[in-house]
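tool_call: predict_structure(chain=1)
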Amino acid sequence: MKQLADTCEEARAVQIAVLQRMGPSGRARLVAELSHRARDLVEEGVRLRHPDWPSGRVRRQAIRQMIGSRLYREVYGERDPDDR
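tool_result:
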């Protein structure tokens, strides 16, 4: 595994030890939590740029930003229901 430039070898060893102690289910929970937090941050960014948008539109735009426009259109169709 490639070492991150901002992480010293000692810190990396501690991180690996903690992740190993968590076990597979603990690591899966951690990944799920990080994914939810990332989505929340993207949604908050959209909400700050578009305070007048309803929550559904904010959520859809956040999804579009996270998965890309092409996949978004494949999953949700060509038109956003809020686009007029």
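agent: Residues 9-49 form the longest helix (41 residues). Proceeding to next step.
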